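Students often ask why we bother encoding 3D structure as a string. The short answer is that it lets us treat folding as translation between two languages. Here is a chain of 368 residues written in the first language.
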Amino acid sequence: MAPFSDRTDEYAIYAWSSEELEKARPEIAYAAERFRALFGAPPPRIAVVLFDTRERMIGFDFDSLGQEGLRYLPWLPPAPGAAPAGGIGLRGLEPLSHEAGHVFLMAYADRKLGLATPSGRGDPTSRYGHPALPDWFDEAIATLSESPEIQALRRERLAGAIDDRIPLAELVAMEHPVAAGLREIIESARSQARAEGREAGVVRLQMPAESRQQSVLFYAEALMLGEFLAERGGPAFLARVADGLLEGRSLETIVGEAGILPPDLGEIERAWLDWLELSWGSSFAQPLQPSASGQSPTDVCTAPPHGRPVYASASSPPGVPGGPVPRRSSDRGRAGTPARDAPSRRRRRRRRCSPARTTWRRQSAGAP
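And here it is in the second language, the structure alphabet:
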């Protein structure tokens, strides 16, 4: 085992240098803190092993950690100047808390399902993340465990490509773009090697530009959908989502039973887009769409989708690029309501609402 370690009720960190241990400790502690905030309970205990060389990682005996019933995270810091994981291209910020978020969630799912802890993620052609959870939720918890700087960059990327976003119905059902792309490359190389009667050997993993762009959107949308659900559902609601997904129920069923949104993915997506614009500014505004009901431009639904402070403001303070607009107590005459810039307010006053959407909002507000 590594000569340096730190053990708590929530994690055990092993390292080959005290410097790496001290550097990693706040990242792992932050991921544990985010899990507590999102799930309303301490995370299951995991192990993190910090390596200084690839050779040490390859030769390490992970079986001892598996025998203790611990999900583990092997970590080799990226080379200087290398972009971190997550398809974000933000150099200089190592996503250790992101990876710890993945492992905390896997351990949570194992515990809920009563599963013996697997020894690792397995073959690179297997499904990404925990097999009992959809990939968007796995990535939502990981991105919600990131630093505010990385989250702000993801938010900016989504704002710049909101018209090209992955539709919600596709997002919640799709496989992680990176995992799907890598599996396709590896399987293709293996098939070619078999046809030629040789071993596959080393495979060059180069993702096509289109797959990389979809990956950027997948991470960003998972983050913002996770924030939206956490803000709408309140404390520990993501634990309820996780439990429902582990039981095989759909997202729309879970939020519908909770009474926070209509049980329809189309309506959920519209509410999510409204929340993005209201909470994060006019860069998320959508073009006006003609109404099938024949309503005039003034017959609109102006009630905000929520009256609570923006959930993400705790991790992304005002002033961070892509963060919330600083609140003003005079905005809409109600303290604590997220402020919006004037162009956003004008657009929202003109926005149409379908009769069904208006009815839902009235019911949510307690109106007859």
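Translate back mentally: Residues 96 and 222 are 18 Å apart (CA to CA). Keep this in mind for the problem set.
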